[in-house]
Amino acid sequence: MENFLLWVFYVMTFYAFLPGVISRTFGFRVFKRGRVEKEIALTFDDGPDSQYTPQLLDLLKRYNAKATFFVVGSHAEKQPGLLRRMKDEGHDIGIHNYVHKSNWLMRPKTVRRQIEKTNAIIETATGERSNYYRPPWGIVNLFDYSNMGYLQIILWSSLFGDWRIRVGAERLQRRMMKKLRPGEVLLLHDCGKTFGADEAAPHNMLIALEAYLKQGMKQGYSFVNISQMIRLTDASWKPSLMKRTVISLWLLWERAFHAAFRLKQVGEGDKPSFHYRVTTYNGQSVEFADGGAIGKGDVVAELHFDNGMLSSIAARYKSPLAAGLRVIREVEHALPQLARQLAEDPDASNIKAVYGVTMIHRGADRLGFEVFNLPDGLFARSTNVYLRLLTKVLTPSDSGNRRKDRNKRLKEATSPRMLLMPVHRIRQYAAAGLDNLQGGNADLLRAPIDRTIAGTGDESAVISSKTTAL
Ligand SMILES: [Zn+2]
């Protein structure tokens, strides 16, 4: 019975907390449509152009419209004044490579250089670096995702062939009017000098755009830059009634769980970050990097994240990086306190290690934990199936490719790991506090240890001890 309850607890924890993290973490890298009430984002590629861009800026100003310019570095280099004007008039500037060339034709390193060079040009002209990137023709190189780090990739929800002069201003206008809808990210071009475009095409675009702006204003739309669109979209994320119900049931369940298994709170106050309980270890035998070992039947302190803490972090920090760092910070703060409590707790006098299973394990090695993969088996497999289902639920509007890609990243970042810290290491936290530990005994913690527990035997025992939240 106890094992069953632990299992249910584990699954519930997955369900309730992960949605927030996942939608923020993985929904944010590629942006192409907003979820907003009455806003539209205009984006202009390939410029700046000495002839058309000033006209466009005048037009936007007349209608009090903010937009986003994805500039080609080699064009921007010659027009620092236009870049400054864009910034001064409240528009966003994004990067569209240094030369207008597809990322498929360039090595990842070259793409990175192009982006860097263009961003330097933007920074020199405006004093600010750009956070946005749009690859030419929207063709993203697989490496782009891993290489871009700080950059948000912006695609679009509609395009109209405005780079072709034969489309004509009138037809262009008709096409655009069909997309007078909230959340649209329109792709237009303020320069016709790139390969495949007609040089005078932006002339038609300006005529059609004026009609579009006029009609849009009449209907109460506002035209915003991409940062504003992302901000509003992000703020509109609300869990459905179903999800909220599940979350409150889960919080209730968590309280019952804490009472039933006598979880002890780490630290004082009503907003703890962690709980622990002293229990016996049921998993595989493990030897620690610096000597000592743990095996079945040994006494351990089993660590639990507080899920209230986790969900408030997920809600507060929009960027995955910031949320991850924040969680690691919380662990850093709590470890000395945990160490002192364990030293005073008579139940914990004979523990061999601190133990937990968690999905957030990046950086745990730095804190003195050893990180182990879970044995491949029913548990690992069912977790993966569950996560795939979850992603589908969370991302109903995604195209197949994007979802596939997201799934891959999701799997990498959220596969559960077992964390173990031998008791002599946690004792050092009590004696020294974290600063000293990281200074004096840093060698102890430095080498990242990532091992797989040998064999897949006794899976049920492993499952029965999977309790740590998240
Ligand atoms: Zn382009």
The gist of it:
It comes from Paenibacillus chungangensis. Helix content is 48%, strand content 15%.
Number of strands: 18
Which segments are poorly predicted (pLDDT under 50) over 5 or more consecutive residues? Answer: 14-28, 390-400, 434-470
Structural class of the secondary elements?
alpha/beta
Q: How many structural units, i.e. domains?
A: 2
Give a written overview of the molecule.
The radius of gyration is 27 Å and the shape is elongated. It has 17 helices and 18 strands. The protein has 470 residues and is of the alpha/beta class. β2, α2 and β3 form a beta-alpha-beta unit. α12 crosses α15 (423-440). A seven-stranded mixed beta sheet has the order 10-11-14-15-17-16-18. It has helices at 2-26, 52-62, 73-76, 80-88, 108-126, 142-147, 169-177, 201-218, 226-235, 241-260, 307-316, 320-344, 378-394, 400-413, 423-440, 442-446, 459-464; strands at residues 30-31, 39-45, 67-71, 92-95, 132-133, 152-154, 158-159, 185-189, 222-223, 264-265, 274-280, 286-287, 293-294, 299-305, 353-358, 370-373, 417-422, 450-452. The chain starts with a helix and ends in a 6-residue tail after the last helix. The protein folds into two domains: 2-28 and 238-464, no CATH class; 36-235, Glycoside hydrolase/deacetylase (TIM Barrel, Alpha-Beta Barrel), CATH 3.20.20.370. Zinc ion is lined by residues 45-46, 96, 100, 136, 194. This is Polysaccharide deacetylase family protein. The chain crosses the membrane at residues 6-26. Keywords: Membrane, Transmembrane, Transmembrane helix.
